[in-house]
Amino acid sequence: MRVQQCVWLKSTPTPHEPVAYARPYFPKGVGRRFPPHGKQHRDRPVHRRNGDRKLARRQTTMASLPQPREPNPARTEPDRPVLKLYGATPVPFHTEYRYHDRATKARYVWEKYQSILRGARILDVGADECHLKRHLDCNASYWGIGLGGSPDQEVDLERGPLPFPDNAFDCVLCLDVLEHLEAIHFVFDELCRVAKRHVIISLPNPWKELWSAMRCKVRPADCPTKFYGLPLERPGDRHRWFFNCEEARRFIEYRAAKCGMHVLQVDVEGKSGNRWWKRWRRRWAVRWLRSDLSADVLYAGTLWAVLEKSDG
Fold first, then answer.
1. Residue 201 to residue 267: CA distance in whole angstroms
2. What is the pTM assigned to this prediction?
3. Which pLDDT belongs to residue 86?
4. Domains defined along the chain, listed by start
5. Are 117 and 97 within 8 A, CB to CB?
6. CA 62/CA 67 separation, integer angstroms
7. Are 119 and 139 contacting, i.e. CB atoms less than 8 angstroms apart?
8. Which of 140, 96, 149 is closest to 122 using CA atoms?
9. 254-300: per-residue pLDDT in tens?
10. In 3-state terms, what secondary structure has residue 43?
């Protein structure tokens, strides 16, 4: 049986030495009943009784308790922007709402980024039918540009710079547009130029579309993958670039740094399963193809990024 050292209780504890008592160790079969209050005597050890066995309480001072370590300046990492790609912890911009078309996507954008959009001057690049306008508050101003749909101003993004001065809008949105442009790098830089504070960008994950086609999903015979493949007739629109969500993240971080902006948040839709066996199955399937890939490059959906213009 383990025996603890008996410590005598002082009659009057020193004011500068607060007394704390550690929980005693009780062998198997020994009771944990406290002694009756008032039965302790001065200058006698505080103890608990269980038959003829006696265990003493150990007295420890607060100074002897373990203290938190001071951070090592040499190992402290510098401040970095909040990046959220595949994790499950809460992020600054988040909503539980899910969209299925362009009209519901506008509501998704408002519920997720309303802290940025409320009362701001907004430029929507590739606005289509300007669905976002109906969700904005009365203090916000909205201007939509593009070619298809019914934008406020028709602008061909492939033919030159945006017809706006520098820092003309508080927030610039470009949602599922850049992948349709040949001049994707130039248009990205233009978005950062006309933005005074924030840029919100969304890009698809074409690898997921190809992976779905390879897994025998139901597809039209003349177009096995959306916006890709070789259709029999010239399509009215198609994607110019084929990439995954990891490549999209690196592209956004690199171009943002060149334009004097930093990334506030990057997150993706449709993470690789909530149940452990689904996550394991998908990781196994991806590693069977390439061991250096994560499951999200084939299963994650649209990537969303929020950029903020750096001070100075």
1. 11
2. 0.66
3. 39
4. 1-66 (no CATH), 102-309 (3.40.50.150)
5. no
6. 10
7. yes
8. 140
9. 999 999 999 999 998 866 455 555 566 666 666 666 666 676 777 78
10. coil
